[in-house]
Design a protein that fits this description.
Layout (H helix, E strand, L loop, with lengths): L16 H18 L2 E5 L16 E5 L6 H12 L4 E7 H5 L9 E4 L4 H14 L5 E6 L17 H8 L4 E8 L9 E6 L3 E2 L8 H25 L5 E6 L6 H13 L14
Parallel strand pairs: 1-7, 2-5, 2-6, 3-4, 3-5
Antiparallel strand pairs: 1-9, 6-7, 6-8
């Protein structure tokens, strides 16, 4: 009797949706305590702020400025694409300290090894055969300041794009600037989606160069918006902690009560 060939889907580990739900409940509260808001940039061209990906396979490749990045990716995905499972590579050593993360999409990869590269590519190929998955990749590998130029990426993303048969490869940028409140903002932006079928002539190195340029363009647009501090340029995805806290806010609250005004904990009125 002939053996049944396994489909590419079999290489993605099982996803514990209930555990993921509990984890995201914790993450939402944790991020509310540490950030003022999460804001999504409106593109300057006519693209939708949220890419339309229904029925498509998707690889989202990102810059990597902070430890917070994977949590923010998962929060944004849950808000904008709640029906998708999230998978993404993470250093195998770090994952070993939090083994439960293996059950909710974190994929342990050995850094700087042929074995790790092969494992990553196998996962990426499997993800790009599915329309119920978002595959997140921190394309720079190490932590890199979001303003550093040029944007350099590890070769893995280019190999994953070259190996894909269909779907979208989408740049995604993130920053954590301080604006007018005590806590920082989370600013994110989707870049122009790249259709795999339209670039089948590119090899892995060419893909990497093409995608690095698209990510740099996305980061530049987000940088400009971050510097301007124009809240109207963004869509608020989630609100966090507002106010200074402590004696300062107690004094402001008393002053508002004596003046017969409603207390606004924000340090500064939102110009929007």
């Amino acid at each position: 009797m002939p053996r049944t060939q396994k489909s590419p889907d079999a290489t993605l580990p099982p996803y514990a949706k209930r555990l993921h739900g509990w984890f995201m409940w914790y993450v939402r509260g944790y991020c509310r305590r540490h950030f003022h808001s999460i804001r999504l940039l409106k593109p300057s061209d006519n693209r939708p702020a949220v890419p339309v990906i229904e029925g498509e396979s998707v690889l989202l490749y990102t810059n990597h400025p902070s430890w917070w990045d994977p949590l923010i990716f998962f929060l944004v995905a849950q808000k904008l694409y709640p029906d998708r499972m999230n998978y993404g590579p993470i250093d195998a050593t770090a994952l070993g300290r939090y083994s439960f993360l293996k059950r909710i999409g974190f994929l342990g990869i050995e850094r700087d090894s042929w074995k790790g590269a092969a494992r990553f590519l196998r996962f990426a190929k499997a993800a790009m055969e599915r329309s119920d998955v978002l595959f997140w990749v921190t394309a720079q590998g190490d932590f890199v300041d979001p303003r550093q130029r040029p944007v350099d990426m590890k070769p893995g993303v280019g190999h994953a794009a070259a190996a894909a048969k269909h779907g979208w490869v989408i740049p995604f940028a993130v920053e954590y600037p301080f604006w007018n409140e005590r806590l920082p903002e989370v600013l994110v932006a989707f870049g122009t989606p790249q259709r795999v079928e339209l670039h089948q002539d590119l090899d892995a190195a060419q893909w990497n160069k093409h995608l690095a340029a698209a990510l740099e363009e996305t980061q530049n647009e987000l940088r400009t918006a971050a510097i301007s501090r124009e809240t109207n340029a963004f869509i608020e995805l989630a609100a966090g902690t507002v106010g200074i806290g402590g004696v300062y806010d107690i004094t402001r609250r008393i002053r508002s009560a004596l003046a017969g005004q409603r207390f606004n904990p924000a340090h500064e009125e939102d110009p929007s």
